[in-house]
Design goal:
With 396 residues, the chain is an alpha/beta fold. It has 12 helices and 13 strands.
């Protein structure tokens, strides 16, 4: 098939959960022998994935959290004036929709168009636009996330933030309904998200078939060298973009409830951007951004996953399991993954037990875990390819 893939951001190597999800999708399309044209914002990757072609339709969009207060206000005002969700409006800045239309018109015989992320769908919607068969890949249920963050802002008494987030949730819910009405297939990453979207479809007249793509790690991570190798300290690793609210809330739970219960020999090692200027408590080390998450996982003795909010599958959980390190996780961190977890994953919501499991982790990895990781990854990879093939066939 000839497939067009619209995505929010072009990249060389995936560095966050959204990019890992996109890379997995593109790898599977190319491995199946399809002709893929990737259209997104940012510089064209060099050399790019073999078998895929790339077109840039605008510069990268800066994360909202990194903008100055003045630019944040300006961005929100523009979204109000254009009656768009803020996350949609910022991606459509400049001539992006027009350039996307031009790129699609220049391609003849396209069989399926994939909108990878809900927010890129408005690039191709509009009266009189004839589209190829449409498949929308939902990384999570966006409206539910924003509604939850609005509720939390209200609990804190931050009424302005609550109103802004409620507006975002309402407009993204409308876009989800549009996706369910316009797409042939809507693919998400967890059964919970699929059930939520099917319920939405019943209320808004959605016709799309809803499928679940079972996430799998891109890298097997089967090396099992020792973790810290730097003395008796047990290194407990956490990675994320810490300005992202679900990550920040999970880290706060870890600092408030788990860290005080850890013995002095344990060190909490944090990686990822978003903690600049913060004073962290004793026993916590922040490395900043790291080049590859898998290398970070291999440098620690245990990976802690402490999420309590959010939808979709947590991609860092998938990659952490693949690193063949002991993983200690809350049930919410493993949403969409609980059915077939390998033996080195421990699950608890109790802060005391969470701390004990981290403190008792072996230094390094058990060699037996590598085999279970390989079996787990391969089974999920095959299921993913099968489901995606079914999605493409249905859409086409």
């Amino acid at each position: 098939m000839k497939i067009g893939l619209l995505t929010t951001r072009l990249f060389d190597e995936p560095r966050n959960g959204g990019e890992i999800c996109t890379a997995r999708l593109l790898h599977t399309i190319v491995d199946a022998g399809h002709d893929a044209l990737v259209i997104g914002r940012g510089p064209v990757p060099s050399p790019g994935m073999r078998g895929a072609r790339y077109r840039s339709v605008g510069p990268l969009v800066e994360p909202f959290e990194s903008l100055s207060a003045r630019r944040r206000v300006g961005s929100l005002c523009t979204a109000l004036l254009t009656r768009q969700a803020s996350t949609v409006q910022r991606l459509a800045e400049g001539a992006t929709p027009r350039r996307v239309k031009q790129e699609l018109q220049a391609e003849s015989g396209m069989d399926v168009l994939i909108a990878d992320h809900l927010q890129v769908l408005p690039w191709v919607l509009g009266p009189g636009r004839k589209l190829p068969a449409l498949l929308v890949v939902m990384h999570n249920v966006e409206s539910d996330n924003y509604a939850e963050w609005a509720r939390r802002a209200g609990q804190r008494g931050d009424w302005l933030r609550q109103r802004i987030l409620q507006r975002e949730a309402r407009l993204l819910h409308r876009l989800e309904c549009e996706a369910l009405r316009r797409a042939e297939v809507l693919a998400c990453l967890s059964r919970g998200d699929a059930d939520r979207l099917l319920a939405t479809a019943r209320t808004c007249g959605g016709r799309a078939q809803v499928e679940v793509l079972p996430s799998f790690p891109l890298d097997t991570g089967l090396q099992s060298q020792a973790g810290s190798g730097e003395g008796p300290d047990r290194r407990i690793g956490m990675i994320g973009t810490w300005t992202w609210e679900p990550n920040r809330l999970g880290l706060q739970w870890m600092l408030d409830h788990v860290l005080p219960r850890l013995p002095p020999a344990c060190v909490l090692v944090l990686a990822g951007p978003g903690l600049e200027g913060l004073e962290l408590p004793r026993g916590v080390v922040w490395l900043g951004s790291v080049a590859r998450a898998l290398d970070f996982y291999r440098s620690v003795d245990v990976v802690a996953l402490s999420s309590h909010v959010g939808t979709g599958v947590q991609e860092k959980a998938v990659e952490a399991i693949a690193a063949a390190r002991l993983v200690v996780a809350t049930p919410h961190s493993l949403r969409g993954l609980r059915a077939d977890l390998p033996s080195h994953v421990r699950v608890t919501d109790d802060a005391g037990q969470f701390a004990r499991l981290c403190a008792d982790a072996p230094l390094g990895a058990d060699p037996a875990w590598s085999g279970s990781v390989k079996t787990w990854r391969e089974a999920r990879r095959v299921r993913y390819a099968d489901v995606l093939g079914r999605c493409l066939a249905t859409a086409h």
